Amino acid sequence: MRIGLCSLVLVCLLVSLSVAQEPSPKVEARETGFFQTLATEAQPKMVKVFGAGAGRVDSFATGIIVSDDGKVLTMQGVFLDGREVRVVTSDGVSHPATILSRNRVSQMALLKIERGTPDYFELTSDPVGEKGDFVVALTNAFKVADHEEPLSATAGVISLRSSIEAWLNKRDLAYAGELVLIDCITSNPGAGGGAVIMGDGRLVGMVGKVINSSETNTRLNYAIPSSVLLEFVNGTLKEETQKQTANAAGNADLGIALFKLGGRSDPAYIDRVKRGTPAKKVGLRPDDMIVQLGGEKIATVKAYEQALSKLRPGEEIFIIVKRGRELKRIAITPVEKKK
Protein backbone atom coordinates (compact mmCIF):
# COMPACT_ATOMS: atom_id res chain seq x y z
CA MET A 1 0.00 0.00 0.00
CA ARG A 2 2.87 2.35 0.85
CA ILE A 3 4.48 1.66 -2.54
CA GLY A 4 1.24 2.42 -4.34
CA LEU A 5 0.83 5.73 -2.52
CA CYS A 6 4.41 6.77 -3.34
CA SER A 7 3.87 5.88 -6.97
CA LEU A 8 0.68 7.95 -7.08
CA VAL A 9 2.45 10.96 -5.56
CA LEU A 10 5.33 10.59 -8.06
CA VAL A 11 2.93 10.42 -11.02
CA CYS A 12 1.08 13.52 -9.84
CA LEU A 13 4.39 15.38 -9.41
CA LEU A 14 5.54 14.48 -12.94
CA VAL A 15 2.20 15.53 -14.43
CA SER A 16 2.32 18.88 -12.64
CA LEU A 17 5.89 19.50 -13.83
CA SER A 18 4.89 18.62 -17.38
CA VAL A 19 1.97 21.03 -17.29
CA ALA A 20 4.14 23.76 -15.77
CA GLN A 21 6.77 23.43 -18.50
CA GLU A 22 4.34 23.27 -21.43
CA PRO A 23 4.28 26.62 -23.32
CA SER A 24 1.13 28.64 -23.37
CA PRO A 25 -0.98 27.84 -26.49
CA LYS A 26 -1.59 31.58 -26.93
CA VAL A 27 2.15 32.40 -26.87
CA GLU A 28 2.93 29.57 -29.31
CA ALA A 29 0.20 30.68 -31.70
CA ARG A 30 1.34 34.29 -31.54
CA GLU A 31 4.98 33.37 -32.37
CA THR A 32 3.91 31.06 -35.20
CA GLY A 33 1.58 33.71 -36.59
CA PHE A 34 4.34 36.37 -36.58
CA PHE A 35 6.82 34.10 -38.38
CA GLN A 36 4.25 33.06 -40.96
CA THR A 37 3.13 36.64 -41.60
CA LEU A 38 6.72 37.85 -42.03
CA ALA A 39 7.52 35.09 -44.54
CA THR A 40 4.24 35.51 -46.43
CA GLU A 41 4.64 39.28 -46.85
CA ALA A 42 8.15 38.82 -48.28
CA GLN A 43 7.19 36.17 -50.87
CA PRO A 44 6.01 38.66 -53.58
CA LYS A 45 9.47 40.27 -53.44
CA MET A 46 11.18 36.94 -54.15
CA VAL A 47 11.67 34.86 -57.31
CA LYS A 48 12.96 31.46 -58.37
CA VAL A 49 15.70 31.49 -61.03
CA PHE A 50 16.21 28.61 -63.48
CA GLY A 51 18.81 28.06 -66.18
CA ALA A 52 21.25 25.52 -67.59
CA GLY A 53 22.45 22.60 -65.55
CA ALA A 54 23.69 19.05 -65.86
CA GLY A 55 25.34 16.46 -63.65
CA ARG A 56 26.48 18.07 -60.39
CA VAL A 57 25.99 21.60 -61.68
CA ASP A 58 22.85 23.17 -60.17
CA SER A 59 20.37 24.69 -62.60
CA PHE A 60 18.48 26.80 -60.08
CA ALA A 61 18.87 29.60 -57.56
CA THR A 62 16.88 32.21 -55.65
CA GLY A 63 16.51 35.91 -56.48
CA ILE A 64 15.27 39.11 -54.88
CA ILE A 65 13.39 41.90 -56.66
CA VAL A 66 15.09 45.27 -56.12
CA SER A 67 13.08 47.72 -58.27
CA ASP A 68 9.57 48.34 -59.56
CA ASP A 69 10.62 47.71 -63.18
CA GLY A 70 11.64 44.05 -62.90
CA LYS A 71 15.28 44.13 -61.76
CA VAL A 72 16.32 40.98 -59.90
CA LEU A 73 19.50 40.21 -57.95
CA THR A 74 20.86 36.67 -57.74
CA MET A 75 24.19 34.87 -57.42
CA GLN A 76 26.62 33.98 -60.20
CA GLY A 77 26.54 30.43 -61.51
CA VAL A 78 26.88 28.24 -64.58
CA PHE A 79 23.07 28.09 -64.73
CA LEU A 80 23.18 31.66 -66.11
CA ASP A 81 25.31 30.58 -69.09
CA GLY A 82 22.61 28.60 -70.91
CA ARG A 83 20.54 29.74 -73.86
CA GLU A 84 17.71 30.92 -71.62
CA VAL A 85 17.34 32.09 -68.04
CA ARG A 86 13.84 31.98 -66.56
CA VAL A 87 12.54 33.85 -63.53
CA VAL A 88 9.39 32.58 -61.82
CA THR A 89 7.53 35.14 -59.72
CA SER A 90 5.51 34.33 -56.60
CA ASP A 91 2.29 33.99 -58.63
CA GLY A 92 3.84 31.09 -60.56
CA VAL A 93 4.29 32.98 -63.85
CA SER A 94 7.55 32.27 -65.74
CA HIS A 95 9.40 35.17 -67.42
CA PRO A 96 12.46 35.15 -69.71
CA ALA A 97 15.26 37.16 -68.09
CA THR A 98 18.03 39.32 -69.49
CA ILE A 99 21.41 39.44 -67.72
CA LEU A 100 22.28 43.12 -67.23
CA SER A 101 25.57 42.76 -65.36
CA ARG A 102 27.80 40.47 -63.31
CA ASN A 103 30.54 41.00 -60.75
CA ARG A 104 33.32 38.44 -60.36
CA VAL A 105 34.46 39.68 -56.94
CA SER A 106 31.07 39.57 -55.22
CA GLN A 107 29.78 36.74 -57.46
CA MET A 108 26.49 38.60 -58.02
CA ALA A 109 24.37 38.96 -61.15
CA LEU A 110 21.69 41.52 -62.03
CA LEU A 111 18.79 40.28 -64.16
CA LYS A 112 15.73 41.98 -65.62
CA ILE A 113 12.28 40.73 -66.54
CA GLU A 114 9.77 42.65 -68.64
CA ARG A 115 7.14 43.06 -65.97
CA GLY A 116 6.16 45.64 -63.41
CA THR A 117 7.16 44.59 -59.90
CA PRO A 118 5.50 46.92 -57.37
CA ASP A 119 6.62 44.67 -54.48
CA TYR A 120 10.39 44.87 -54.04
CA PHE A 121 13.11 45.21 -51.40
CA GLU A 122 14.47 48.68 -50.72
CA LEU A 123 18.28 48.73 -50.80
CA THR A 124 20.04 51.08 -48.40
CA SER A 125 23.59 52.33 -47.89
CA ASP A 126 23.17 52.08 -44.11
CA PRO A 127 23.75 48.76 -42.27
CA VAL A 128 20.52 46.90 -41.48
CA GLY A 129 20.57 44.79 -38.32
CA GLU A 130 23.04 44.37 -35.49
CA LYS A 131 24.69 41.46 -33.73
CA GLY A 132 22.07 39.38 -31.93
CA ASP A 133 19.12 40.63 -34.00
CA PHE A 134 16.50 38.09 -35.09
CA VAL A 135 16.48 37.39 -38.86
CA VAL A 136 14.64 35.13 -41.32
CA ALA A 137 16.26 33.66 -44.44
CA LEU A 138 13.98 32.93 -47.43
CA THR A 139 15.45 30.65 -50.11
CA ASN A 140 14.66 28.07 -52.76
CA ALA A 141 17.15 25.62 -51.27
CA PHE A 142 17.03 22.17 -52.90
CA LYS A 143 14.48 23.55 -55.41
CA VAL A 144 11.55 23.23 -53.01
CA ALA A 145 9.48 25.52 -55.26
CA ASP A 146 8.92 25.39 -59.03
CA HIS A 147 5.89 27.61 -59.58
CA GLU A 148 3.68 29.48 -57.10
CA GLU A 149 4.80 27.40 -54.09
CA PRO A 150 6.28 29.55 -51.28
CA LEU A 151 10.01 29.59 -50.61
CA SER A 152 11.35 27.94 -47.47
CA ALA A 153 12.04 30.07 -44.39
CA THR A 154 14.71 29.61 -41.70
CA ALA A 155 15.02 31.67 -38.52
CA GLY A 156 18.23 32.72 -36.79
CA VAL A 157 20.21 35.69 -35.51
CA ILE A 158 23.02 37.90 -36.78
CA SER A 159 26.31 36.58 -35.41
CA LEU A 160 28.82 39.12 -36.73
CA ARG A 161 29.59 41.72 -39.37
CA SER A 162 32.93 41.20 -41.05
CA SER A 163 34.73 40.96 -44.40
CA ILE A 164 36.37 38.08 -46.24
CA GLU A 165 38.39 37.19 -49.32
CA ALA A 166 37.66 33.53 -50.09
CA TRP A 167 39.35 31.83 -53.04
CA LEU A 168 38.50 28.53 -54.69
CA ASN A 169 42.10 28.50 -55.90
CA LYS A 170 44.75 31.06 -56.84
CA ARG A 171 42.59 32.41 -59.65
CA ASP A 172 38.89 31.80 -58.92
CA LEU A 173 37.05 33.76 -56.24
CA ALA A 174 34.21 32.39 -54.14
CA TYR A 175 33.50 35.82 -52.62
CA ALA A 176 35.42 38.92 -51.55
CA GLY A 177 33.96 41.80 -49.56
CA GLU A 178 31.79 42.66 -46.58
CA LEU A 179 29.41 40.07 -45.17
CA VAL A 180 26.91 39.43 -42.40
CA LEU A 181 27.41 36.10 -40.64
CA ILE A 182 24.17 34.41 -39.54
CA ASP A 183 23.55 31.30 -37.48
CA CYS A 184 20.79 29.80 -39.64
CA ILE A 185 21.82 27.29 -42.29
CA THR A 186 21.71 28.84 -45.77
CA SER A 187 24.71 27.17 -47.45
CA ASN A 188 22.63 24.75 -49.52
CA PRO A 189 22.13 24.23 -53.28
CA GLY A 190 19.74 26.83 -54.67
CA ALA A 191 19.82 29.07 -51.59
CA GLY A 192 22.17 31.63 -53.16
CA GLY A 193 20.29 34.81 -53.99
CA GLY A 194 17.82 34.39 -51.13
CA ALA A 195 16.75 37.19 -48.80
CA VAL A 196 17.78 37.66 -45.17
CA ILE A 197 15.28 39.99 -43.52
CA MET A 198 14.66 41.59 -40.14
CA GLY A 199 11.56 41.06 -38.04
CA ASP A 200 10.14 44.27 -39.53
CA GLY A 201 10.71 43.04 -43.10
CA ARG A 202 13.76 45.19 -43.92
CA LEU A 203 16.44 43.54 -46.06
CA VAL A 204 19.65 42.70 -44.17
CA GLY A 205 21.26 41.24 -47.26
CA MET A 206 21.27 38.50 -49.89
CA VAL A 207 22.38 34.92 -49.24
CA GLY A 208 25.80 34.47 -50.86
CA LYS A 209 27.42 31.71 -52.86
CA VAL A 210 28.42 28.55 -50.97
CA ILE A 211 31.84 28.93 -49.32
CA ASN A 212 33.33 25.65 -48.09
CA SER A 213 36.54 25.55 -46.02
CA SER A 214 39.00 22.96 -47.31
CA GLU A 215 40.73 22.98 -43.90
CA THR A 216 37.71 22.39 -41.64
CA ASN A 217 35.23 20.99 -44.20
CA THR A 218 32.60 23.44 -42.93
CA ARG A 219 30.42 25.91 -44.76
CA LEU A 220 29.92 29.60 -44.08
CA ASN A 221 26.36 30.89 -43.61
CA TYR A 222 26.35 34.54 -44.60
CA ALA A 223 24.58 37.35 -46.41
CA ILE A 224 25.97 40.08 -48.67
CA PRO A 225 24.93 43.36 -46.96
CA SER A 226 22.24 45.58 -48.49
CA SER A 227 24.80 48.39 -48.90
CA VAL A 228 26.99 46.19 -51.15
CA LEU A 229 23.92 45.15 -53.17
CA LEU A 230 23.12 48.84 -53.71
CA GLU A 231 26.65 49.55 -54.98
CA PHE A 232 26.39 46.68 -57.46
CA VAL A 233 22.98 47.78 -58.77
CA ASN A 234 24.29 51.35 -59.13
CA GLY A 235 27.41 50.14 -60.95
CA THR A 236 29.90 51.45 -58.37
CA LEU A 237 31.13 48.15 -56.91
CA LYS A 238 34.80 47.43 -57.63
CA GLU A 239 35.67 44.62 -60.05
CA GLU A 240 39.03 43.60 -58.60
CA THR A 241 40.50 42.69 -55.22
CA GLN A 242 43.88 43.87 -53.95
CA LYS A 243 45.26 40.40 -54.65
CA GLN A 244 44.12 40.52 -58.26
CA THR A 245 45.47 44.03 -58.82
CA ALA A 246 48.91 43.09 -57.44
CA ASN A 247 49.40 40.23 -59.90
CA ALA A 248 49.66 41.09 -63.59
CA ALA A 249 48.34 38.67 -66.18
CA GLY A 250 50.93 36.40 -67.79
CA ASN A 251 51.53 34.80 -71.15
CA ALA A 252 49.48 31.66 -70.42
CA ASP A 253 48.66 28.68 -72.61
CA LEU A 254 46.30 25.73 -72.14
CA GLY A 255 47.09 23.81 -75.32
CA ILE A 256 43.67 24.31 -76.94
CA ALA A 257 42.95 25.12 -80.58
CA LEU A 258 39.40 26.30 -81.37
CA PHE A 259 37.23 26.09 -84.46
CA LYS A 260 37.46 29.47 -86.20
CA LEU A 261 35.80 28.79 -89.55
CA GLY A 262 32.99 31.26 -88.83
CA GLY A 263 35.19 33.88 -87.21
CA ARG A 264 35.68 35.05 -83.63
CA SER A 265 31.94 35.39 -82.99
CA ASP A 266 31.43 31.60 -83.19
CA PRO A 267 30.92 29.53 -80.01
CA ALA A 268 34.19 28.34 -78.44
CA TYR A 269 34.27 24.71 -79.60
CA ILE A 270 37.56 22.84 -79.17
CA ASP A 271 38.99 21.72 -82.51
CA ARG A 272 42.23 20.18 -81.27
CA VAL A 273 43.97 19.41 -77.96
CA LYS A 274 47.77 19.52 -78.21
CA ARG A 275 49.85 16.69 -76.77
CA GLY A 276 51.61 17.19 -73.44
CA THR A 277 49.59 20.31 -72.60
CA PRO A 278 47.40 21.14 -69.58
CA ALA A 279 44.25 20.56 -71.66
CA LYS A 280 45.41 17.07 -72.64
CA LYS A 281 46.36 16.18 -69.06
CA VAL A 282 42.91 17.06 -67.65
CA GLY A 283 41.02 15.22 -70.38
CA LEU A 284 39.58 18.00 -72.54
CA ARG A 285 38.39 16.74 -75.92
CA PRO A 286 37.64 17.98 -79.44
CA ASP A 287 34.01 19.17 -79.74
CA ASP A 288 33.87 20.24 -76.07
CA MET A 289 32.25 23.67 -75.94
CA ILE A 290 33.89 26.06 -73.47
CA VAL A 291 31.26 28.00 -71.47
CA GLN A 292 33.40 29.41 -68.65
CA LEU A 293 37.11 30.04 -68.09
CA GLY A 294 38.65 31.43 -64.93
CA GLY A 295 35.26 32.57 -63.66
CA GLU A 296 34.38 34.43 -66.88
CA LYS A 297 31.50 33.50 -69.18
CA ILE A 298 32.61 32.28 -72.60
CA ALA A 299 30.07 32.69 -75.41
CA THR A 300 32.40 33.19 -78.37
CA VAL A 301 35.93 32.52 -79.60
CA LYS A 302 36.72 36.19 -78.93
CA ALA A 303 35.53 35.89 -75.30
CA TYR A 304 37.78 32.84 -74.83
CA GLU A 305 40.81 34.67 -76.19
CA GLN A 306 40.15 37.63 -73.88
CA ALA A 307 39.76 35.37 -70.85
CA LEU A 308 42.90 33.40 -71.76
CA SER A 309 44.92 36.64 -71.96
CA LYS A 310 44.09 37.32 -68.28
CA LEU A 311 45.38 33.98 -66.99
CA ARG A 312 48.74 33.57 -65.28
CA PRO A 313 51.04 30.57 -65.79
CA GLY A 314 51.18 28.23 -62.80
CA GLU A 315 47.93 29.44 -61.20
CA GLU A 316 45.16 26.85 -61.17
CA ILE A 317 41.75 27.89 -62.51
CA PHE A 318 38.50 26.15 -63.42
CA ILE A 319 37.24 25.60 -66.94
CA ILE A 320 33.65 24.54 -67.59
CA VAL A 321 32.83 22.76 -70.82
CA LYS A 322 29.64 21.37 -72.29
CA ARG A 323 30.17 17.80 -73.49
CA GLY A 324 27.03 16.44 -75.08
CA ARG A 325 24.31 17.17 -72.56
CA GLU A 326 26.65 17.40 -69.59
CA LEU A 327 28.46 20.36 -68.06
CA LYS A 328 31.89 19.46 -66.68
CA ARG A 329 33.85 21.66 -64.26
CA ILE A 330 37.56 20.86 -64.47
CA ALA A 331 40.59 22.29 -62.65
CA ILE A 332 43.42 23.21 -65.01
CA THR A 333 46.77 24.97 -64.55
CA PRO A 334 48.03 27.10 -67.47
CA VAL A 335 51.68 26.97 -68.53
CA GLU A 336 53.83 29.68 -70.04
CA LYS A 337 53.28 30.03 -73.76
CA LYS A 338 56.19 28.82 -75.86
CA LYS A 339 57.77 31.44 -78.09
TrEMBL record:
Residues 238-312 form the PDZ domain. It comes from the Bacteria. GO terms for biological process: proteolysis. SMART domains: PDZ (SM00228). Pfam families: PDZ_2, Trypsin_2. It is an enzyme of class 3 (hydrolase). Its EC number is 3.4.21.107. GO terms for molecular function: serine-type endopeptidase activity. Residues 1-20 form the signal peptide. This is Putative periplasmic serine endoprotease DegP-like. It comes from Mariniblastus fucicola. The gene is degP1.
